Amino acid sequence: MSDNQKKTKQKPSANKAIKNLWKVFGVLLLVIVLFFFCVAKGLFGTMPSFEELENPRTNLATEIYSADGKLLGSYYIENRSNVRYAELSHYMPEALVSIEDERFMEHSGIDERALFRVAFGVLTGKNKGGGSTITQQLAKNLFPRGENLSKPKLVLRKFQEWITATKLEHNYSKEEIIAMYLNTVAFGHNAYGIRSAASTFFDKKPKEMTLEECALMAGVVNAPTRYSPVRNPERSMGRRNLVLQKMADNGYITQAECDSVSLIPIDMTHFSIKDHNSGQATYFREFLRGELTDWAKNTTRPDGTPYNIYRDGLRIYTTIDSRMQRYAEEAVKEFMGKELQPMFYRHWKGQRNAPFSNVSADEIDHIMETSMKRTERYRTLKNEGVPEDSIKAEFNRPVRMTVFSWDGPIDTVMTPMDSIRYYKWFLQASLISIESHTGHVKAYVGGLDYRFFKYDHVTQARRQVGSTFKPFLYSLAMQEGEYTPCTKIPNIKYNIQLEDGRVWSPGNSGGRVGEEITLKYALAQSNNWISAYLMNQFGPNAVIAQARRMGVESPIDAVPAICLGVCDLKLIEMVGAMSTFANQGVYIKPMFITRIEDKNGNVIQRFSPEESEAMSELTAYKMVELMKGVVQSGTGIRLRSLYGLTNPIAGKTGTTQKNSDGYFMGITPDLTTGVWVGAEDRSVHFRSTKLGQGSHTALPIWAIYMKKVYADKNLGVSKGDFPKPYAPGVDLDFNCWQSDDNESIEYIDEF
Questions:
Q1: Cα separation, 522 vs 737, whole angstroms
Q2: Considering the entire predicted model, what is its pTM?
Q3: Domains of the chain
Q4: Cα separation, 188 vs 239, whole angstroms
């Protein structure tokens, strides 16, 4: 056969092979296209819908902001909240792209070069790194894989992520994808998203992060535990410096900048894990959680479903001022930790049954058992069906625990019962400060440390209020009668006939018995006889009605003794009521929230003050002048003599039976602030009224707080006098002090 004949025969054969090859290729291509089509349509598993891609849902933390723009805390399942691209430091996207996806700006969701590199690595056994783009990682974060997937399912899931990534690239800009990725990624230490990470690691907003901080965070996302700057600082620094070098290689920074910044040590001095038990305003945040939960149940999204404070990324703008909150917390810590608690220890040292006063051993056992039953440990064991004897045995078995101390938490070993007895020694304190003319709560301290003492003494606790109740009675007298601060009344014992025929007559301390004294002097010295006289004039029901007009809602028994404060009220009720005097007689219900926004910044609801007239402007001014006497020469004179506060201040101290509770209510033109001090159990207290009265236990906290507030000029809190009302023909000076009214004597303030 000739060569030509051979070539003729071979040619059709070669052509056929090529055609077959193209057919196979075409079939494979068709199969691949059909496969991707089926995956995209969800035939092999659910794919995110167009609506889900347009509005991807993640568990977004609800953020709590102070009035001055500081993040106070969050409510969350995952501590995550969103930022816009414009809210990022310009270094952050550059660092992220440099280390995670160098060709991010060039590809459309899938980096073919990276895929070929991965494939080559698989075939050769030489791993050269992963092939996932930032967009693919975002797809995985937004629409997470299931756990423990088989290899076939894992491969299928990878195809689904590719398709999702291309859809994301189609729907969003590169900048939006960067921001979305940084909002969804975990940084470790309970920080999800860059906003949470910036706050946790550096106590900053994302916009404020420096080059080295951005490089550090970009390096962490690859392996949050391995590269944790807290757990593995050396490894983290090496990773950070690699990111910096990548940024230099990609032209985002110069090599000189890279070399210089690489020498900067990692600074974790501002690191703080954000949880519900730590940070600023913990008691306030927990109180607000209950308020917001109720609000969410009764407020619906546009789709008709109720809001969820743990998932919806709401932004709550509160009335709290972070600076004033800090000063309040510092004031409590400084006085209680450095002065009052050490004094209490010394006072009870060596005393039998300490720190319980005039209580039998059986009564102490009852107190301890009751306290045991209030613990979470007891409730858990009880719910598990553990018998009572076994529970008691468990409470007497030593265990490792961390307990509170003013020098910091102590890791120790003791029985739960011993820990209960240990905590009985601690005096508690609370403070709430309200802007008088707006009702805005500016500072809120519910206790010593929320990590160890969950009970809130501002809005949960009801305690006897002592002589701080007297202004309700005096304001009624000023409103309904011809009384003024200068009205004189004989300082004698008064008897009040009770409905059952008995006679009630309170005791009294102080001098000038039998003389006529002014109401201003009487309130300044917390005179009980004059209170009894006024109570006899107006009656308990009228006094209760006056308290109701001033915002008090707690139950009050209609008995004459309420003029001495035998009723149990909340601190927030008392301070809200007292602010009425500074607000020209108008009561404003304390406000905690100004507005609520959704995750996109749209206002869902604005809040306005609830106001009502409680008394005339003139009456309110009379009361202010009356209560100035408490500070000028009465039970509150320490503000002048010891703490050097010379500006106009109206106030009232209070001390309850057996010195169980001490109060000080301080009023200035701008702020009304109340402080309570006492123990968890009323049987725990100072044995001496000199040490246990409100002027000694509560007033110092108020003084320390206000001195800090006044020192901060940026707050703009006035030291001026209270404004006088327009009252033609009325003498508003009330200069009724007698020579001996100005005695700088601190009389005992008690029932």
A1: 11
A2: 0.81
A3: 80-274 (1.10.3810.10), 427-720 (3.40.710.10)
A4: 15
